[in-house]
Amino acid sequence: MNRKSGFTLAEVLITLAIIGTVAAMTIPTLMTNTNKMEFKTGFKKILSTTNQAITMSVALNYIDFSDTTSTGTNPTQSILGIFINRMHVTKTAYGNSDDTAVERMFHSGAANNYTIFFADGMVLSFPASSQNCRVGQNSRANICKGIVDVNGTRAPNYLSNCGGTQKKDATTDGGGTQCNPNNAGIFDQFSIFMADQQVQPNGQAAKYVLFEN
């Protein structure tokens, strides 16, 4: 008489319990790492596309950030105009009151900003007074700063920084603290600066994401 082998119900339940425990321990870490990679990739993408926009402006209109002289939408006079003219922009807003999405993303950090929504879901916000942005020595320097959100209105809407903390209403990532794998708080917002013919990371966290080995 042949005897059939198999698992008892208790053995199956124990195995499922072990698998569930391991999954509960590892899935949050995997999700966090996946989100960080998405944020890093998004930041590099928006740096690339905005730099392409200013390159096109120079090639076709002979205008870069240092040539801007107004805060309107004229593509040959303003930063806002350059981006509207050279990128796929779905809408713009001024301050928080123009759009509740701006309030959700930047809170009071964009109260005096132009905020640009791009077709790929990314967002750029910078002071409406920004113009004549250039790298120079002493009084000639006029670097214009801004914040990008790589996934728009979706959470978490925090500024990346080198302390690992969640900064909802920040305009700077903390200054001179060096980022490393242990203290890098990588979220969906990054600080940038615009000057001459370039858009570059501003602050240690943004630089860490772009230049990390």
Question: How would you describe this structure to a colleague?
Answer:
- With 213 residues, the protein is of the alpha+beta class.
- Helix content is 36%, strand content 16%.
- The protein has helices at residues 9-61, 79-86, 100-106, 204-211, and strands at 89-94, 113-118, 123-127, 144-149, 189-195, 198-201.
- The mean pLDDT is 86.
Largest sheet: 6 strands, antiparallel
Helix fraction, binned, reads 25-40%
The helix count comes to 4
Strand content: 15-25%
Structural domain tally: 1
What radius of gyration results from the CA coordinates?
A: 23 Å
Low-pLDDT segments: none
State the secondary-structure class: alpha+beta
The total of beta strands comes to: 6
The span between the termini is 65 Å
What is the 3D form?
Answer: elongated
Calculate the mean pLDDT score and round it.
86
What pattern of helices and strands is seen along the backbone?
A: HHEHEEEEEH
**Biggest sheet: strands side by side, in what order?**
1-2-3-4-5-6
Task: Write a brief structural summary.
The chain has helices spanning 9-61, 79-86, 100-106, 204-211, and strands at 89-94, 113-118, 123-127, 144-149, 189-195, 198-201. By secondary structure, the chain is an alpha+beta fold.
Draw up the topology in text.
Elements: H1 9-61, H2 79-86, E1 89-94, H3 100-106, E2 113-118, E3 123-127, E4 144-149, E5 189-195, E6 198-201, H4 204-211
Antiparallel strand pairs: 1-2, 2-3, 3-4, 4-5, 5-6
Could you name the key traits of this structure?
single chain; 213 residues; alpha+beta; 4 helices
